[in-house]
Amino acid sequence: MSDGRVRPYFTTRGLIPENQETPIHFLRGSIFDKGYWFLRNHFQYPDLTINSGNLLITGAVKKAFIIKLEQLKTLPSKTITVPLICAGNQRAEFRPKVYGEQWEEGAVSQGVWTGVPLKDLLGVSGLEENALEVVFTGADRGTTPNVDEAVLYERSLPMNKALHPDTMVAYEYNGQPIPFKHGYPLRLIVPNWYGMASVKWLQKITVVAQPYEGPFQTDDYVYYPDPHTDEGKSPVTTIRVNSIIQQPLDHSIIDEGAHVIVGLAWSGEGQIEEVEISFDKGNTWEAVTLAQDQTKRYAWTEWQYNWTTPGKGTFTIQTRAKDSDGNVQPEREYWNRKGYGYNAIYRINVKVE
Q1: Whether 331 contacts 295, CB under 8 Å
Q2: Is the peptide bond before 185 cis (omega within 30 degrees of 0)?
Q3: What is the residue extent of each domain of the chain?
Q4: Candidates 2.60.40.650, 3.10.450.750, 3.90.550.10, 1.25.40.10; CATH matching 242-352
Q5: What is the maximum alpha-carbon separation in the chain?
Q6: How far, in Å, CA of 288 to CA of 5, rounded?
Q7: Helix, strand, coil content of the chain in percent (nearest 5)
Q8: Which fold does the domain 11-220 belong to in CATH?
Q9: pLDDT in tens, 95-137
Q10: Which of 26, 153, 274, 345 has the greatest number of beta carbons closer than 10 A?
Q11: What is the pLDDT of residues 51-72, one digit of tens each?
């Protein structure tokens, strides 16, 4: 690159459809450039047309209407910093192993989104008394293992989440039009929920009077705790409290002396209140230093810890985060056969020479 900096590459998890993992361990800062956003797709990219910027709002509403992108931009907007985290992030860590894209820690990114609150658009249409959920349809389509014919990517939100003041129809990312691969021209943004809820290439919003049961609602993005049956299943929704170490890397060799351990923490239930670190396999814990902007209620938390190595040898470093609602990273992950929501205490091993 012309600026002389070394730029890390994505880790390819799939090409058809394209799934690329962000080099999270090498990136610093709270906002990611579009070039470093992870890519998660279920199908190949859609073909956009001149009408792709038209958004239809229909269903159990008093007045269905179509709003064009240019019209949407004239409405009162808001701008919020939101991380998007794939529900399958860290799937590679599950034991026993599970099937699916073997994401490590890099199916996460964060940026600044600008758009119109969904509740304002639904306010224009007016909700019928029997309105129960809101279904969001993207332009991407394809087949799934359980459906032979092509389907569109669709997800629904319960009415209380759809009407949350920060659930928005976004048209800008980091002050620019949303990049095509991340949902241009319109993308739903759902703070605090895993990324599958933030439907890309949004083309239709349908208010329904009955529970939505599409394949990405009732088959995928469901926790199945039993390896063989559907007993105890529950929907994947809110991001679980988590922390990761960005540097040093797992199984790296470092010199004796002073080191700065850095990482990230996030939660969907509340803001990060504390991150602790352990060097004795969890027998004792120490608090790290948090870097937080209290004005950004959804943003992840950067943290660091100054460590002076006690001598040569091998060391296990663990971290755990706690949020303002009292949620703490567990010792072991919540195993489920599709590999969603991994958030066990984070651990790496390093060798000091």
Answers
A1: no
A2: yes
A3: 11-220, 242-352
A4: 2.60.40.650
A5: 71
A6: 29
A7: 10, 40, 50
A8: Sulfite Oxidase; Chain A, domain 2 (3.90.420)
A9: 999 999 999 999 999 999 999 999 999 999 999 999 999 999 9
A10: 153
A11: 999 999 999 999 999 999 999 9
Interval 40-44 mean pLDDT:
97
Which tens digits make up the pLDDT trace of 224-283? 999 999 999 999 999 999 999 999 999 999 999 999 999 999 999 989 999 999 999 999
- 144 backbone φψ class: left, alpha, beta (φ>0; ψ -120 to 50): beta
Q: Where is 243: in which H helix or E strand?
A: strand 242-247
pLDDT of 294 > 90? The answer is: no
Cα–Cα dist 322/317, whole Å: 17
Task: Give the C-alpha separation, 324 to 326, whole Å.
Answer: 5
**Secondary structure (DSSP) of 88-140:** TTTGGG-SS--SS----S-SEEEEEEEEEEHHHHHHHH-B-TT--EEEEEEEE
In which region does residue 247 sit, left (phi positive, over 0), alpha (psi from -120 to 50) or beta (all else)? beta
Query: Do 11-220 and 242-352 show the same overall fold?
Result: no
